[in-house]
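pinging the channel bc i need a second pair of eyes. not urgent but kinda urgent?? the chain im working w is below, pasted from the shared doc
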Amino acid sequence: MKYHPLGHTGLLVSEICLGAMTFGSSKSPIWGSIAGLDQKASTGLVARALEAGVNFIDTADVYSEGHSEEHVGQAIRDIGVKRSDIVIATKCYGRVGKGVNDTGASRGHIMDSVARSLERLKTDHIDLYQIHAQDALTPVEETVRALDDLVSRGLVRYVGVSNWQAWKIMKALGIADSRGLARFESLQAYYSIAGRDLERDVVPLLKDQKVGLMVWSPLAGGLLSGKYGPDATGPEGARRTNFDFPPVNKERAWACVAAMREIAEAHGATVARVALAWILAKPFVTTVIIGAKTQEQLDDNLSAVDLELSHEEIEKLDHVSALPQEYPGWMVSRQSGDRRPHPKKK
C-alpha cells in the first residue's frame, strides 16, 4: 500500500480508500439497492481494509440516512484502532430531513450537519469534511467561511468538495487564498476508464492548484467489473441491474472491458483489478474509493495495488478509452504545439 499527501498538506492517506456507502440499511429506492450491510459485516470490512494498510475511510451523512456514519464509528471502536491512525472523511449537503433548510451548503446546514455527523461517528473531530454537491443558492463565500470556522474550532481538520465544476473550485480557492481561510484540499469526483471527462478541465486545475483527487465509482457502478457485457444485464441483485448509475457511454465501456479482459487474462487477474490499476497509475490520482459488500470483493479490489501494468498495456487502455476532442481543447492543441516545455536532456 502506498500513501500520498492529501492535496497541498502533510497528511498521508492510503492510495485505496474504503467507501462506506454499502454500510447500513435503508428502505429508500437508492440506498436500499446499494447498502444493506449490518454492523458485523461493516466492521469486518473495515478490519480487513485496515489489515491491508488502508488508513482512509469515506462516508456521508446521507448514506443510508446516517446509518453508514454510525457503522463506521462503531467499527472503529469495536476494532480498537487508535483514532490518530485512521483518517475519516464524511460529507454534507444532501437532504437529511423534511425541513426547508435540511439540505444545501449554507452556514446553517453545515453547522447542523457537522454536529450530527460527529455524534454518529463517535468522534470529536472529522479529518476531512466535504461539501457533497454544488449549491446554486448559497454564495461560495458563505460556504468557505463556514468551513473555515469548523477548522478554527478544531471540529474539522481539512475541507474538500465533491462533484464541483472547475470554475467553482477555482473561485473557492481564490476566496480562501485572498482571505486566509482554509482551502479545499481535495475533490471527490467520478472517474473511470469509461468516464474520463474529468481530464478536460478539472484535472489541469487539480494539478495547477495542488488539490488532491479522490475517485468515486472507479468501476462505474460495477459496469467495469467484468460481470457485464453488451449481451448481458449482469448478475441478479448486482448494483447496475437495479440502479443504472453513473451514466456511461455503453459502447465505449464495452470496448474498454474487452481490452481490459485481454490484459486481465495475461496477468491472471480480474477485469475489475485492471480497471483499478489503470486509475492508480494516473499521477493526478490521490486515492481510489472502493466499496464492497463481501470480503471477496474487497480482497480483489485491494489486490489492485499489486498489479503493475506495463507501459504498453497502459497505452492500449488509454487509446481505447480516449476522449473525443471538444472545443476549445482541439484549438488549444492546434495553437500551442510549439509552446509546450520540452523534457530536459540528461
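so Residues 166 and 202 are 5 Å apart (CA to CA). and The longest strand covers residues 156-162. — does that match what u expected or am i reading it wrong
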